[in-house]
Amino acid sequence: MLEKIENQPRGLALGSNEESVPLLGYIAAGEPIEPIENPEFINVPNSLLRDRIAQYYALRVRGDSMIDMGILDGDIVVIKHQFTANPGDIVVGITEKGATLKQFKIVGNRVALIPKNPNYQTIFPKKLEVRGKFVGLIRT
Questions:
Q1: CATH code of the domain covering residue 53
Q2: Which domain holds residue 40?
Q3: Taking the model in full, what pTM does it have?
Q4: Which of 69, 73, 107, 108 is exposed most, by the fewest CB atoms within 10 A?
Q5: CA distance 120 to 14
């Protein structure tokens, strides 16, 4: 959002409709990786942070398993911290093999993490801990 700068003709600046959230490190969009947290802070548009009570964080994407959702290698995903998911949600999931960003589904009586790239296989984890839900994307 742009704001007018006082006393400057045609003066515009980026609006202050942003909030600082921690950028915790990397998330795999491919084979799961060991989660590594290296916190720094980035500014995120308030429009991505709709639930004022919730906590949010950001992760940089490594890999291309979510390319058909428009999530590319190097993008920053904004995540709402939560431990539950509905089928169809894009989640940060911690499996026995590490952390990954995938679509959460129930297939039969099993939990599935679905990639959005036909070059990757669906993951059927033995254990799954949901650590958050995808709410937005920042492309740098």
A1: 2.10.109.10
A2: 19-138
A3: 0.83
A4: 108
A5: 39
Would you state the pLDDT for residue 18?
82
Strand-pairing partners, residue 95, are 98, 128
Is residue 6 in a domain? no
Q: What count of Cα atoms within 13 Å lies in the side-chain half-sphere of residue 53?
A: 1
Percent of residues, the chain, with pLDDT higher than 70: 89
Q: Which of 20, 80, 102, 116 is catalytic?
A: 102
Q: Distance between CA atoms of 86 and 134, rounded to whole angstroms?
A: 12
| 20 classed as catalytic | no
**Residue 16 appears among annotated catalytic residues:** no
| Residue 7 within a domain | no
Tell me which amino acid residue 31 is: E
Closest-CA residue to 120 (of 34, 59, 29, 33): 29
Active-site annotation holder among 65, 80, 116, 133: 65
4 lies in some domain: no
Q: Which amino acid is at 110?
A: R
Q: Is residue 99 part of a domain?
A: yes
Q: Give the total number of structural domains in the chain.
A: 1
**Could you read off the pLDDT of 50-97 as tens digits, one per residue?**
887 889 999 999 999 999 999 999 999 999 999 999 999 999 999 999
